[in-house]
Amino acid sequence: MDIGQPKRIIEVEPVTLPVPEAIPVPEPRPAQTPEPAEPAP
Amino acid sequence: MTRTTLDRALPVESATEPVVAWRAWALTGRRDGTHLLLRPVVGRGRPWLPGRPAEAGCRMLGPFHEAPQLGCSCGLHGTHGLDLLRRTRCPAVLGRVALWGRVIEHESGFRAQYGYPQRLRLICQFCFWQWGTHGVQPAVVGWFPRGELLPMCDDHAEMAGRCGMRPQAWLPFDEIEQRLRDTYAVDPLAI
Q1: What residues does B73 pair with on adjacent strands?
Q2: CB atoms B10 and A19 under 8 Å
Q3: Do B106 and A6 touch (CB under 8 A)?
Q4: What are phi and psi of B173, to 5 degrees?
Q5: Is residue B41 within 8 Å of residue A38, measured between CB atoms?
Q6: In this structure, how many other beta carbons lie within 10 angstroms of the beta carbon of residue A5?
Q7: CA-to-CA distance for A38 and A25, rounded, in angstroms?
Q8: What whole-number distance in Å separates Cα of residue B107 and Cα of residue B100?
Q9: Are B104 and B21 in contact (CB under 8 A)?
Q10: In whole angstroms, what is the distance from residue B111 CA to residue B76 CA?
């Protein structure tokens, strides 16, 4: 990919890094457990 | 010409806000759609790891050197506009990328020392080549050998199959796109 000739140099020191501090971990889906059987009358 | 001599030929500026540019990536993952990783579309560059800045490095001028350098084409690339990205090979993901550290601005883009995606969207590469972002949204994601993932719209998925380009698995587009954004903790690209 040709992006042409260089024009200028920028020394970027960001105050805040543009990287999320903590990657959220998806919550595990609750295990599907069968409903307890109704006690027999 | 040495790096110092070349640097003197261009103005040098300082900034505290990252440069934001357009970029395209390739995408890899497991057959079940997990362990998604953004990768450079060309070469055998290192993957962009979730939660960590990508850092450029280069061995093109002999021993490893810091990137980007003026006398080389190294660095993490980004472009001013989207159209230039339509010439890239096999793009699977389109997005906005933050670039910082040493950044060299060119006529049509940037080369940078560090980068991290800010917004991401899966694209059908065939639609993107033909119509840019006016193409059709992907419907499926093909999983190919070596873990390469290629999103495609329905028409191009069918056409790819007729041309012998058959993935080993089809994955749901919505699920993969959401998982990609969750993996990198970024927002969707609205275009």
Answers
A1: none
A2: no
A3: yes
A4: -60, -50
A5: no
A6: 9
A7: 37
A8: 18
A9: no
A10: 5
Q: Please report the number of interchain residue pairs, chain A to chain B, with beta-carbon separation below 8 angstroms.
A: 113
Residue type, B134: H
Which of B20, B49, B105 to substitute to test the interface with A, most A CBs within 10 Å? Answer: B105
B79 and A CB contact within 8 Å? yes
pLDDT digits (tens, 9 = 90+) for B77-93: 999 999 999 988 889 99
Span B139-155, pLDDT tens digits: 999 999 899 999 999 99
ipTM of the assembly? 0.86
What is B85-144 written as a DSSP string? GGGSSS--EEEEEEEEEEEEEESSEEEEEEEEEEEEEE--HHHHHHHGGGSPPP-EEEE-
Integer CA distances (angstroms), B50 to B92, B101, B158, B160, in order: 17, 19, 32, 31
Please state the φ and ψ torsions of residue B136, each to the nearest 5 degrees.
-85, 145
Nearest to A26 by CA among B36, B175, B179: B179
